[in-house]
Amino acid sequence: MNTYKQTQSGVQYFLKGISLAMTPGIRRFVFIPLLINIALLGGSFFYLFNQIGGWIEQILAQIPSWLDWLSYLLWPLIVISILAVFSYFFSTIANWIAAPFNGLLSEHLEAKLTGQPAPSGGIFDALKDLPRIFKREWQKLKYYIPKALGLFILFFIPAIGQSIAPILWFLFTAWMMAIQYCDYPFDNHKVPFETMRDELKTKRGKCLSFGSLVTLFTMTPILNLFVMPIAVCGATAMWVDVYRDTHKAINP
Length: 252
Fold this sequence. Notes:
Oligomer: single chain
Number of strands: 0
Largest sheet: none
Distance between the termini: 17 Å
Protein backbone atom coordinates (compact mmCIF):
# COMPACT_ATOMS: atom_id res chain seq x y z
CA MET A 1 0.00 0.00 0.00
CA ASN A 2 1.22 3.52 -0.75
CA THR A 3 2.96 4.84 2.40
CA TYR A 4 2.10 8.45 1.55
CA LYS A 5 -1.58 7.63 1.45
CA GLN A 6 -1.30 6.01 4.87
CA THR A 7 0.17 9.21 6.32
CA GLN A 8 -2.48 11.56 4.94
CA SER A 9 -4.54 13.22 7.65
CA GLY A 10 -8.30 13.31 7.93
CA VAL A 11 -8.16 17.01 7.05
CA GLN A 12 -6.41 16.15 3.77
CA TYR A 13 -9.09 13.61 2.94
CA PHE A 14 -11.86 16.11 3.59
CA LEU A 15 -10.18 18.70 1.35
CA LYS A 16 -9.66 16.01 -1.28
CA GLY A 17 -13.41 15.40 -1.13
CA ILE A 18 -14.00 18.91 -2.49
CA SER A 19 -12.22 18.18 -5.77
CA LEU A 20 -13.59 14.63 -5.99
CA ALA A 21 -17.18 15.91 -5.70
CA MET A 22 -16.60 17.98 -8.84
CA THR A 23 -15.06 15.14 -10.85
CA PRO A 24 -16.70 14.48 -14.24
CA GLY A 25 -18.90 11.40 -14.00
CA ILE A 26 -19.36 11.91 -10.25
CA ARG A 27 -21.11 15.29 -10.25
CA ARG A 28 -24.47 13.80 -11.23
CA PHE A 29 -24.47 11.65 -8.07
CA VAL A 30 -23.75 14.74 -5.95
CA PHE A 31 -26.87 16.60 -7.07
CA ILE A 32 -29.59 14.91 -4.94
CA PRO A 33 -27.59 14.79 -1.65
CA LEU A 34 -26.70 18.43 -2.24
CA LEU A 35 -30.34 19.47 -2.68
CA ILE A 36 -31.43 17.55 0.44
CA ASN A 37 -28.66 19.13 2.50
CA ILE A 38 -29.43 22.64 1.28
CA ALA A 39 -33.14 22.28 2.08
CA LEU A 40 -32.70 20.84 5.59
CA LEU A 41 -29.62 22.61 6.91
CA GLY A 42 -30.53 25.91 5.27
CA GLY A 43 -33.97 25.95 6.89
CA SER A 44 -32.80 24.67 10.26
CA PHE A 45 -30.03 27.24 10.61
CA PHE A 46 -32.43 30.06 9.74
CA TYR A 47 -34.56 28.89 12.69
CA LEU A 48 -31.50 28.47 14.94
CA PHE A 49 -30.24 32.02 14.52
CA ASN A 50 -33.65 33.33 15.52
CA GLN A 51 -33.67 31.26 18.72
CA ILE A 52 -30.08 30.88 19.90
CA GLY A 53 -29.98 34.07 21.99
CA GLY A 54 -32.85 32.92 24.22
CA TRP A 55 -31.37 29.45 24.63
CA ILE A 56 -28.02 30.87 25.76
CA GLU A 57 -29.73 33.09 28.33
CA GLN A 58 -31.62 30.09 29.75
CA ILE A 59 -28.40 28.08 30.13
CA LEU A 60 -26.45 30.95 31.72
CA ALA A 61 -29.33 31.60 34.12
CA GLN A 62 -28.53 28.27 35.83
CA ILE A 63 -25.10 29.51 36.93
CA PRO A 64 -25.05 30.57 40.63
CA SER A 65 -24.73 34.34 41.17
CA TRP A 66 -21.32 33.99 42.84
CA LEU A 67 -20.04 32.43 39.59
CA ASP A 68 -21.38 35.18 37.31
CA TRP A 69 -17.84 35.96 36.19
CA LEU A 70 -17.79 32.55 34.46
CA SER A 71 -20.49 33.71 32.03
CA TYR A 72 -17.91 35.53 29.92
CA LEU A 73 -15.87 32.35 29.59
CA LEU A 74 -18.80 30.00 29.09
CA TRP A 75 -20.69 32.06 26.51
CA PRO A 76 -18.49 31.14 23.49
CA LEU A 77 -18.29 27.51 24.64
CA ILE A 78 -22.08 27.30 24.90
CA VAL A 79 -22.48 28.80 21.41
CA ILE A 80 -20.08 26.20 20.00
CA SER A 81 -21.91 23.43 21.86
CA ILE A 82 -25.35 24.50 20.62
CA LEU A 83 -24.05 24.77 17.06
CA ALA A 84 -22.43 21.33 17.32
CA VAL A 85 -25.56 19.65 18.69
CA PHE A 86 -27.89 21.43 16.28
CA SER A 87 -25.73 20.80 13.23
CA TYR A 88 -25.30 17.12 14.09
CA PHE A 89 -29.03 16.65 14.72
CA PHE A 90 -30.14 18.14 11.42
CA SER A 91 -27.27 16.68 9.41
CA THR A 92 -28.31 13.28 10.80
CA ILE A 93 -31.87 13.81 9.54
CA ALA A 94 -30.47 14.90 6.17
CA ASN A 95 -28.26 11.80 6.07
CA TRP A 96 -31.22 9.52 6.86
CA ILE A 97 -33.11 10.98 3.90
CA ALA A 98 -30.09 11.02 1.60
CA ALA A 99 -28.61 7.68 2.73
CA PRO A 100 -29.39 5.69 -0.45
CA PHE A 101 -28.07 8.51 -2.64
CA ASN A 102 -24.93 8.94 -0.51
CA GLY A 103 -24.30 5.20 -0.75
CA LEU A 104 -24.66 5.41 -4.53
CA LEU A 105 -22.26 8.37 -4.68
CA SER A 106 -19.71 6.50 -2.57
CA GLU A 107 -20.06 3.35 -4.68
CA HIS A 108 -19.46 5.13 -7.99
CA LEU A 109 -16.60 7.21 -6.62
CA GLU A 110 -14.86 4.10 -5.27
CA ALA A 111 -15.15 2.46 -8.69
CA LYS A 112 -13.56 5.53 -10.28
CA LEU A 113 -10.75 5.74 -7.72
CA THR A 114 -9.89 2.04 -8.03
CA GLY A 115 -10.30 1.80 -11.80
CA GLN A 116 -13.11 -0.74 -11.48
CA PRO A 117 -16.17 -0.82 -13.77
CA ALA A 118 -18.94 1.49 -12.60
CA PRO A 119 -21.75 -0.31 -10.69
CA SER A 120 -24.67 -1.17 -12.92
CA GLY A 121 -27.34 -0.34 -10.32
CA GLY A 122 -28.95 3.10 -10.22
CA ILE A 123 -31.11 5.15 -7.90
CA PHE A 124 -34.07 2.76 -8.08
CA ASP A 125 -31.86 -0.16 -7.09
CA ALA A 126 -30.60 1.87 -4.14
CA LEU A 127 -34.15 2.66 -3.08
CA LYS A 128 -34.99 -1.05 -3.04
CA ASP A 129 -32.31 -1.45 -0.37
CA LEU A 130 -33.95 1.09 1.97
CA PRO A 131 -34.86 -1.37 4.80
CA ARG A 132 -31.23 -2.44 5.20
CA ILE A 133 -29.98 1.15 4.87
CA PHE A 134 -32.35 2.47 7.53
CA LYS A 135 -31.46 -0.41 9.83
CA ARG A 136 -27.84 0.72 9.55
CA GLU A 137 -28.78 4.34 10.31
CA TRP A 138 -30.68 3.13 13.36
CA GLN A 139 -27.56 1.32 14.60
CA LYS A 140 -25.67 4.60 14.46
CA LEU A 141 -28.44 6.37 16.35
CA LYS A 142 -28.45 3.71 19.09
CA TYR A 143 -24.70 4.18 19.45
CA TYR A 144 -25.14 7.96 19.69
CA ILE A 145 -28.07 8.41 22.09
CA PRO A 146 -26.66 7.00 25.41
CA LYS A 147 -23.40 8.93 25.03
CA ALA A 148 -25.20 12.12 24.03
CA LEU A 149 -27.47 11.89 27.09
CA GLY A 150 -24.45 11.49 29.36
CA LEU A 151 -22.83 14.60 27.89
CA PHE A 152 -26.11 16.52 28.10
CA ILE A 153 -26.26 15.95 31.87
CA LEU A 154 -22.91 17.75 32.21
CA PHE A 155 -24.60 21.02 31.24
CA PHE A 156 -26.54 20.90 34.53
CA ILE A 157 -23.37 20.66 36.64
CA PRO A 158 -22.35 24.27 37.41
CA ALA A 159 -18.87 25.54 36.60
CA ILE A 160 -16.82 22.38 35.94
CA GLY A 161 -19.49 20.44 34.02
CA GLN A 162 -20.55 23.47 31.99
CA SER A 163 -16.92 24.23 31.19
CA ILE A 164 -15.93 20.84 29.84
CA ALA A 165 -19.27 19.83 28.28
CA PRO A 166 -18.92 22.03 25.15
CA ILE A 167 -15.41 20.69 24.46
CA LEU A 168 -16.54 17.09 24.89
CA TRP A 169 -19.63 17.78 22.74
CA PHE A 170 -17.44 19.03 19.90
CA LEU A 171 -15.09 16.04 20.08
CA PHE A 172 -17.97 13.59 20.29
CA THR A 173 -19.74 15.28 17.37
CA ALA A 174 -16.53 15.07 15.34
CA TRP A 175 -16.29 11.36 16.12
CA MET A 176 -19.92 10.80 15.13
CA MET A 177 -19.44 12.74 11.88
CA ALA A 178 -16.52 10.44 11.02
CA ILE A 179 -18.69 7.40 11.75
CA GLN A 180 -21.60 8.82 9.76
CA TYR A 181 -19.68 9.45 6.55
CA CYS A 182 -17.12 6.65 6.70
CA ASP A 183 -20.00 4.23 7.12
CA TYR A 184 -21.20 4.69 3.53
CA PRO A 185 -18.28 2.85 1.86
CA PHE A 186 -18.09 0.32 4.71
CA ASP A 187 -21.80 -0.40 4.38
CA ASN A 188 -21.53 -0.73 0.59
CA HIS A 189 -19.22 -3.68 1.29
CA LYS A 190 -21.55 -5.09 3.98
CA VAL A 191 -18.99 -4.57 6.75
CA PRO A 192 -20.88 -4.84 10.08
CA PHE A 193 -21.33 -1.60 12.03
CA GLU A 194 -19.37 -2.86 15.05
CA THR A 195 -16.45 -3.89 12.83
CA MET A 196 -16.46 -0.51 11.11
CA ARG A 197 -16.54 1.33 14.44
CA ASP A 198 -13.63 -0.69 15.83
CA GLU A 199 -11.54 -0.13 12.69
CA LEU A 200 -12.10 3.62 12.85
CA LYS A 201 -10.86 3.52 16.46
CA THR A 202 -7.51 2.15 15.24
CA LYS A 203 -7.08 5.41 13.28
CA ARG A 204 -8.84 7.62 15.81
CA GLY A 205 -6.64 10.67 15.17
CA LYS A 206 -7.22 10.52 11.42
CA CYS A 207 -10.96 10.09 11.92
CA LEU A 208 -11.23 12.86 14.52
CA SER A 209 -9.41 15.34 12.30
CA PHE A 210 -11.69 14.40 9.41
CA GLY A 211 -14.80 14.63 11.60
CA SER A 212 -13.66 17.91 13.16
CA LEU A 213 -13.44 19.61 9.79
CA VAL A 214 -16.81 18.15 8.77
CA THR A 215 -18.26 19.50 12.03
CA LEU A 216 -16.76 22.96 11.53
CA PHE A 217 -18.14 23.13 7.98
CA THR A 218 -21.53 21.89 9.18
CA MET A 219 -21.61 24.61 11.87
CA THR A 220 -20.73 27.37 9.41
CA PRO A 221 -23.56 29.03 7.46
CA ILE A 222 -23.27 28.75 3.65
CA LEU A 223 -20.43 26.21 3.88
CA ASN A 224 -22.77 23.77 5.63
CA LEU A 225 -25.00 23.67 2.56
CA PHE A 226 -22.30 21.84 0.58
CA VAL A 227 -20.69 19.66 3.23
CA MET A 228 -22.62 16.39 2.76
CA PRO A 229 -21.37 15.25 -0.69
CA ILE A 230 -17.88 16.57 0.06
CA ALA A 231 -17.73 14.51 3.28
CA VAL A 232 -19.02 11.39 1.46
CA CYS A 233 -16.32 11.78 -1.19
CA GLY A 234 -13.56 12.42 1.37
CA ALA A 235 -14.61 9.43 3.48
CA THR A 236 -14.72 7.21 0.39
CA ALA A 237 -11.19 8.26 -0.57
CA MET A 238 -10.06 7.41 2.98
CA TRP A 239 -11.77 4.00 2.72
CA VAL A 240 -9.97 3.24 -0.55
CA ASP A 241 -6.54 4.23 0.80
CA VAL A 242 -6.73 2.99 4.40
CA TYR A 243 -9.41 0.34 4.91
CA ARG A 244 -10.38 -1.25 1.60
CA ASP A 245 -7.53 -3.76 1.33
CA THR A 246 -8.56 -5.33 4.64
CA HIS A 247 -12.00 -6.20 3.29
CA LYS A 248 -11.30 -6.67 -0.41
CA ALA A 249 -10.73 -10.39 -0.13
CA ILE A 250 -13.79 -10.87 2.08
CA ASN A 251 -16.15 -8.59 0.13
CA PRO A 252 -14.69 -8.18 -3.37
